[in-house]
């Protein structure tokens, strides 16, 4: 039993002597300026490079018809003709409806006959006045009668035209509100007419973007009804006034809509492209935040790492703009940043 303990003690003493010798050797090497080679750290790297950066503003908008009116009855009368087929395209000037206009036509015919007779009398008096066979006052009175009848005729013809309701512009008819033969009151809505070959888009933009907004800027539109389709247009007008409550400005865009897929009243997702330029960018996972600053690990000569402070700009999914701290082509670590520090030697992995 004593022999076993003696052997164990001798073994421990031998190990202690060897460990002391190793420490002495390391101390001597450091004293002579010789350090053992540092262990490399496996990381994944990439290079800072320029990429297109598109700055956009997103907003919710509402679709509006480019032109929109309600076609109404100008007088209280029976509806003798109705040419309304819901959803049918119509051309400017096409007859949509006609009210009973018998009285107006009779009045126009009466005044036309009266005017013809008065003009004949006026010509006769002019001939007599040329030979001084009539007084100038009679000629003036007849001229006044002609002018009065002519004004009455123009008024009657205007009322007659109002009995026929025509499309004021090219568009699509809405739902009809009356039936043919019905008695309608003055101001009654017969149907609606919308020009949706081009759709106006109304949306609000925060005041902090006003300095960057301009007429003609491109916009992109999407809607839940057409999930995979993007409609493109441009800004057509910017309200000179801001909403004092929301501190936003109202903007109108214009979208080509010849296929009539978009409709007035739709809720639309609007994206305004403010800027599109190439900027220096790095992957977002290369950043190492420390308090209020951002750092990256830059790989230099001999694969040694240096921690570099950077100033960042805009962010897009997965990428961040670098304003200062890096130049194009600099190699940086994007995976394994937790394992490195300044001065560490790295090895690259795929």
Automatic annotation (TrEMBL):
Residues of the YknX-like C-terminal permuted SH3-like domain: 280-346
Keywords per UniProt: Coiled coil, Membrane, Transmembrane, Transmembrane helix
Keyword Coiled coil attributed: yes
InterPro entries assigned: Beta-barrel_RND_2 (IPR058792), RND_pump_MFP (IPR006143), YknX-like_C (IPR058637)
Any Pfam family matching the protein: YknX_C
Chain segments annotated as coiled-coil in the UniProt record: 99-166
Transmembrane segments: 7-25
Location of the CusB-like beta-barrel domain: 201-273
Keyword Lipid biosynthesis: no
Entry's family note: Belongs to the membrane fusion protein (MFP) (TC 8.A.1) family.
Protein name, UniProt field: Efflux RND transporter periplasmic adaptor subunit
Organism expressing this protein natively: Alkalimonas mucilaginosa
